[in-house]
């Protein structure tokens, strides 16, 4: 596969387009916002020019930006062989989008759902190709993370799994296959950890800096749970915890009220300049 559709030009979609083009793939990058597409194109061009200083490892860094077609029209997905969807972690948005993708993309095209928590089988049911829908939970930032959580839905075929693992390998990634469940492996554990860390701050047990120091200095984690939440985006964290709470109907997934208030206040983390920590623009 050489022509890949990437739907959603946010941080994840931009990072994915960057990684794919760095390894020679052509990308059709779709977003409803022209501004988001312009920002994505600028980021890819910057990486093309300064990738050697930013840790680029792909063999085809030269000409990366020329291998990206930016568009606001889903009809431009008619030529892609594989598609990765990266829009906001909202079931209502995904529910509305997938019938449109199903109509726009070729019948043989595989749909990879880049989601933190929404069940893959639930998404696949919105298409006429349930055997060709799979979960690919990329980690942020995509260019720096070599491993992807690959989720098999109820109807996902072995051919789809094989094609997905082959494509991942073709741009320097490896996949760990798991079965479908809300949150999969990574976020059933991670979201509980982050949510509990937020409760520690809300309850006055420790300041954010000290919560994270316990994890980085005592456990050797590269990043503490609250800095991780800021990196992912507190809005995305809240969406993910809400999905777990809704699907499992278990009180242990109840979002911390402080998390909800911070999202209501627009304190999303790195992308807004302020979350549990402050970031330079």
Question: How would you explain this protein's 3D organization?
Answer:
The protein has 281 residues and is an alpha/beta fold. It has two domains: 3-179, Rossmann fold (3-Layer(aba) Sandwich), CATH 3.40.50; 187-264, N-(1-d-carboxylethyl)-l-norvaline Dehydrogenase, domain 2, CATH 1.10.1040.50. 42% of the residues lie in helices and 14% in strands. It has helices at residues 11-22, 34-50, 91-104, 120-124, 158-169, 186-202, 208-218, 225-232, 234-248, 257-264; strands spanning 3-7, 26-30, 68-71, 82-85, 110-113, 133-137, 147-152, 174-179. Helix 1 crosses helix 2, helix 6 (186-202) packs across helix 8 (225-232) and helix 6 crosses helix 9 (234-248). The protein is globular and about 55 Å long. Belongs to the 3-hydroxyacyl-CoA dehydrogenase family. Residues 4-180 form the 3-hydroxyacyl-CoA dehydrogenase NAD binding domain. NAD(+) binds at residues 8-13, 31, 89, 94, 116, 140, 271.
